[in-house]
Amino acid sequence: MYCTHYKFSEKPFDVTPDPRFLYLTERHRETLASLIYGIRERRGFITVIGEVGTGKTTLLNAALDRLDEKTRVAFIFNTDVTFNEMFSMALYEWGLVKPKEKLSKVNAIQRLNNFAIEQTAKGGNVVLIVDEAQNLDNRVMENLRLLSNIETRRHKLIQIVLSGQPELDTKLGRH
User: Fold this and answer.
1) What is the helix (H) or strand (E) element at residue 157, kind and residue range?
2) Which long-range contacts (CB under 8 A, 24 or more apart) does 26-34 make?
3) Bridge partner list, 164
4) Cα(87)–Cα(41) distance, rounded to whole angstroms?
């Protein structure tokens, strides 16, 4: 309907979060700038919190489009997993494990630490993005917090972006 009436070359309203069709309100612009700044400046944890349908995933994709090729990203969108499963998915996306390769948690953390140190030495950055993070259980959240301890004296070596609905803010506010 839109394509015919407005003579669009493609559908502007689809079910996937396509950042090409992102309309940047003042709040979206500020969130996008904060995301990019937080990642580039190695701020460690970054959160994007908003109601269903407010464009969080689209903003994450827009941020990815604006990061340089030295930024290595693992994007986790299925949060109905254990920490070990999530960590395995991230290691695979970073190219640190082969399909079906099994590592102990200690070896996996050491591999990530070495990778993050190498990336930083080359001027790169390592980012873990978890969308729908409000669904993470407390044990997974604690393991992510511990993962954020991978750092040097001067830099956070892994940037962790948690995106989710307002329940995430409540969850993060707990002890």
Assistant:
1) none
2) 28/55, 28/59, 31/59, 32/59, 32/62, 32/63, 32/66
3) 49
4) 23
Paired sense of beta strands 71-76 and 125-130, if any: parallel
Question: Is residue 158 classed as helix, strand or coil in its secondary structure?
Answer: strand
CA 128 to CA 162: how far, in whole Å? 8
Q: What does each C-alpha distance from 33 to 9, 24, 45, 46, 165 come to in angstroms? A: 29, 11, 15, 12, 20
Q: Residue 53 in 3-state DSSP?
A: coil
Give the 3-state secondary structure of residue 149.
coil
Over residues 12-50, the pLDDT tens digits come to 666 566 666 667 789 989 999 999 999 999 999 999 999
Tell me the pLDDT tens digit for each residue of 80-134: 999 999 999 999 999 999 988 999 999 999 999 999 999 999 999 999 999 999 9
Whole-structure pTM over 0.70, yes or no?
A: yes
Q: Is the dihedral of CA 95, 97, 98, 99 positive or negative?
A: negative
- Listed residue (52, 74, 37, 19) closest to 134, CA to CA: 52
By the 8 A CB rule, do 80 and 135 touch? yes
